[in-house]
Amino acid sequence: MSDPASLLDWLQNWYAQQCDGDWEHEWGVKIATLDNPGWTVSIDLEETDLEEREYPRQEINRTPRDWVWAWTAEKTFRAACGPGNLAEALTLFRTWATVIAA
């Protein structure tokens, strides 16, 4: 698994690169909790280099508390995951975002 500190540093940097005086007023990154329990991640791709890229729905189900789902919809990267899988969900975004589109 990746180093959580470097993962957070990468996400902060990605966010900062999108902020141009306008983008951050309309779009952003949202991380919230679920009641089953778990996390949701919503990363706006509108007006970024990623807005036209697709992340086909992926569902990894290991146990009721160890799972991660990720997909793009409506120019947004979305993920939902178990309580211990937030770094894994964010790593899926980082890996997808940093791979040059074929």
What are the key terms here?
102 residues, alpha+beta, 5-stranded antiparallel beta sheet, 3 helices
Structure description:
With 102 residues, the chain is of the alpha+beta class. The protein has one domain. The protein is 31% helix and 32% strand. The chain contains 3 helices and 5 strands; from the N terminus they run H-H-E-E-E-E-E-H. Strands 1-2-5-4-3 form a 5-stranded antiparallel beta sheet, covered by helices on one side. Strand 1 and strand 2 form a beta hairpin. Helix 1 packs across helix 3 (86-98). The longest helix is centred in the first third of the chain and has 15 residues, at 4-18. It is globular and about 40 Å long.
Write the layout of secondary structure elements.
Elements: H1 4-18, H2 23-26, E1 29-34, E2 38-44, E3 58-63, E4 66-73, E5 76-81, H3 86-98
Antiparallel strand pairs: 1-2, 2-5, 3-4, 4-5
Q: Largest sheet, if any?
A: 5 strands, antiparallel
Helix content: 25-40%
Number of helices: 3
Arrangement of strands in the largest sheet: 1-2-5-4-3
Uncertain spans: none
The sequence of SSEs as H and E is HHEEEEEH
